Amino acid sequence: MAADPVPSPSTGPRPASRPEGNPSPSRPKRPPRKSTPDLHGKEEVTRSGMIWVAVSAGLVLLILLIIFILQNQDRVTVHYFGAAEDLSLGMALFIAAVAGGVLVAISGTARILQLRSQRRHRLVPPAPPGP
Fold first, then answer.
1. Is residue 11 part of a domain?
2. Do residues 84 and 77 make contact, with C-beta atoms less than 8 angstroms apart?
3. pTM for this model (two decimals)
4. pLDDT value of position 121
5. What digits encode the pLDDT tens for the residues 8-25?
6. Is residue 46 part of a domain?
7. Helix/strand/coil (H, E, C) string of the chain?
8. pLDDT tens, 55-64?
9. Residue-number span of the structural domain to which 106 is assigned
10. Within a domain: residue 93?
């Protein structure tokens, strides 16, 4: 009596979990990333490259800010809502700039929330009239 041949891994049955040639529907097919320059000699822009540029620019701005504060060490008296404090001029201007940025962020947040609310109300269909 002859033994049944055992299928080799290359010719054996394939698992039925995912058919070949049919990509998973949860992931769209994307072209592979280019690692070489395109026709115009430009490299592809990546997220990590953009982050690196943003962090580098931020560090340069921080260095310039430190130099500004160190060069403006003259003491000034700042009065605010009845309180008076002696600060260096550079630090007082830095605090004023940060306070201005906070006000811009608050007004921008209010506008974004307003636009989202308007869009949400446009997307909701009107209720049908009652009997």
1. no
2. yes
3. 0.50
4. 82
5. 555 555 555 555 555 555
6. no
7. CCCCCCCCCCCCCCCCCCCCCCCCCCCCCCCCCCCCCCCCCCCCCCHHHHHHHHHHHHHHHHHHHHHHHHHCCCEEEEEECCEEEEEEHHHHHHHHHHHHHHHHHHHHHHHHHHHHHHHHHHHCCCCCCCC
8. 999 999 999 9
9. 89-123
10. yes
